[in-house]
Every structure is written in C-alpha cells, then in structure tokens.
C-alpha cells in the first residue's frame, strides 16, 4: 500500500497542477472557438441520469485526483451523477478518457438559489484518477485573490454555440476579460447581484459567453505559466449568451479556499 501511495504522489508531482502537456492555443477572437484537444485537461463533463440515460448537464473542474469543483445549482438531489474526464468530444470514444461515479456531493451549505449566493459545490469521485497527458488538475488560487479589471481569462465548456443553438460537440474556449467589481456592480450592470464573492467576465455584447456552461471554470494564467481556476460559472443574462453590460458571473474560487479545504479534509 505504501508503494502505491508513493507512486501516486510521484505521478501527481510529475504533472503538477495547471500545466497542460498540450498548451491551449490562445487567441483574441471575439467569439468562442474549438479548443486544442486536451489543452484544458481539468475540464470535466458532469452528467445526470434524469432522462433515463447519461446526459451532459454541467461543466466542472478537476482540482485533485478525486475531487471536482462545480456549481451548486447544477445539483439535483433526486438524480444520480457521473463525471467524464479527459474528454474533447462528448460524442466519440477517446483514448485516455475515463468516467467515475459521483461518490459524495457537497453543495455549499449556504447556497441561495434565488440570489445565486455561494453557488459552489464539490464532488468526490468514486475512485481517484491517474494524471496523464490528457487528464490533470487545475490549480486553486490563494485565499482572497481578486483579479484586476481586464485580466485575460478563458471560459471553457460544451455549452450552446449560440443563444438558441445546439450544444457543442468539441470543447470550446472563449476569451472573457475580467470586469472589475466597481464596474460590474453599477446599477446598469449587475448592481447588487454582483457581490464581493463573485467574478464578472465578458459583457461586451460580442464574446460568446455561451461557451462556458454552468459549473465550468474561468481559467486564468499565472506569471509562471500555470493555470488557476478563478471562477465557477454561475449565471448570466436570460436575454442571451453575452449581453452588453451583463457579463457572465462566476463564483469567486479564492473566496472559498477554506471551505474547499475543510470539505475535502472531512470527506
């Protein structure tokens, strides 16, 4: 058993967090685009059996070998869930991909569905995954970090390609610059709905905010090249994918570092 633990540690250490073997092809296009295959290897597909078969319902982020971060509003206690990992296309079988049942689901105890407060949840996988070139974790930011206005972050997911269009087959990415809280909380933006535990990004009326479906990550690169998951997709405008002055709103992960650590330690 000790040998297996040491091996797992060495494998995790070899890959680290937030350092994809196949770096994303970053661009400044104003709409979403197909991501480079496996360039966001922490992106997961959360699937439920509510329709009688497994169906993609939300995105999420692998943050350790057996824990996934997603949004609380993605969870319905009546359903069973599984997590697909290492995927680029949701419609084809891919080498290196794997699936795990959700063993334990922990929505934030103070989640408020009406105001989207504390819209964050953790999922413990039925068994740990082995990190590889196509499957690894994102880094979690330090406690209390607040992104500056204009920070270039990327949202990823298999969401709809347009407001009423079909869901994506291949993983999508879209540049969504951060909107500072002073701007996002203005009356003609998100006003009081945008709290200090949220991150706003996009909202220029052009970028394709549909690409990051609920629960998925807001990926922001550190100076050393690694990637942190700074946000969990929470809500946007009901009028469309990316409405002017209505940026996508994310749960700010840095505000929940202690909660994440406690939940993972106790479960």
UniProtKB/TrEMBL annotation:
<keyword id="KW-0720">Serine protease</keyword>
<dbReference type="InterPro" id="IPR009003">
    <property type="entry name" value="Peptidase_S1_PA"/>
</dbReference>
<dbReference type="GO" id="GO:0005615">
    <property type="term" value="C:extracellular space"/>
</dbReference>
<feature type="domain" description="Peptidase S1">
    <location>
        <begin position="29"/>
        <end position="265"/>
    </location>
</feature>
<dbReference type="InterPro" id="IPR033116">
    <property type="entry name" value="TRYPSIN_SER"/>
</dbReference>
<keyword id="KW-0378">Hydrolase</keyword>
<keyword id="KW-0865">Zymogen</keyword>
<dbReference type="InterPro" id="IPR043504">
    <property type="entry name" value="Peptidase_S1_PA_chymotrypsin"/>
</dbReference>
<keyword id="KW-0964">Secreted</keyword>
<dbReference type="InterPro" id="IPR018114">
    <property type="entry name" value="TRYPSIN_HIS"/>
</dbReference>
<keyword id="KW-0645">Protease</keyword>
<dbReference type="GO" id="GO:0004252">
    <property type="term" value="F:serine-type endopeptidase activity"/>
</dbReference>
<feature type="signal peptide">
    <location>
        <begin position="1"/>
        <end position="16"/>
    </location>
</feature>
<keyword id="KW-1015">Disulfide bond</keyword>
<dbReference type="InterPro" id="IPR001314">
    <property type="entry name" value="Peptidase_S1A"/>
</dbReference>
<dbReference type="Pfam" id="PF00089">
    <property type="entry name" value="Trypsin"/>
</dbReference>
<protein>
    <recommendedName>
        <fullName>pancreatic elastase II</fullName>
        <ecNumber>3.4.21.71</ecNumber>
    </recommendedName>
</protein>
<keyword id="KW-0732">Signal</keyword>
<dbReference type="GO" id="GO:0006508">
    <property type="term" value="P:proteolysis"/>
</dbReference>
<dbReference type="InterPro" id="IPR001254">
    <property type="entry name" value="Trypsin_dom"/>
</dbReference>
<dbReference type="InterPro" id="IPR050850">
    <property type="entry name" value="Peptidase_S1_Elastase_sf"/>
</dbReference>
């Amino acid at each position: 058993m000790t040998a297996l633990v040491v091996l797992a540690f060495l494998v995790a250490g070899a890959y680290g967090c937030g350092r994809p073997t196949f770096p994303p092809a970053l661009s400044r296009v104003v709409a979403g685009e197909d991501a480079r295959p496996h360039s966001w290897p922490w992106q997961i597909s959360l699937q439920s059996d509510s329709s009688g078969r497994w169906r993609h319902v939300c995105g999420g982020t692998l943050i350790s070998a057996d824990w996934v971060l997603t949004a609380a509003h993605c969870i319905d206690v009546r359903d069973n869930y599984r997590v697909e990992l290492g995927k680029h296309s949701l419609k084809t079988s891919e080498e290196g991909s794997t699936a795990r049942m959700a063993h334990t689901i922990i929505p934030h105890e103070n989640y408020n569905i009406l105001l989207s407060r504390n819209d964050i949840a953790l999922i413990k996988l039925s068994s740990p995954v082995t990190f590889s070139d196509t499957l690894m974790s994102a880094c979690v930011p330090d406690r209390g970090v607040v992104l500056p206005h204009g920070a270039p972050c990327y949202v990823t997911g298999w969401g709809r390609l347009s407001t009423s269009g079909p869901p994506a087959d291949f993983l999508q990415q879209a540049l969504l610059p951060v909107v500072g809280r002073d701007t996002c909380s203005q009356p003609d933006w998100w006003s009081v709905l945008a709290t200090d535990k949220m991150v706003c990004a996009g909202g220029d009326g052009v970028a394709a905010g549909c690409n990051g479906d609920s629960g998925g990550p807001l990926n922001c690169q550190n100076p050393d090249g690694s990637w942190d998951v700074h946000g969990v997709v929470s809500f946007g405008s009901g009028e469309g994918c990316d409405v002017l002055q209505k940026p996508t709103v994310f749960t700010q992960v840095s505000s929940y570092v202690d909660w994440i650590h406690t939940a993972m330690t106790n479960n």
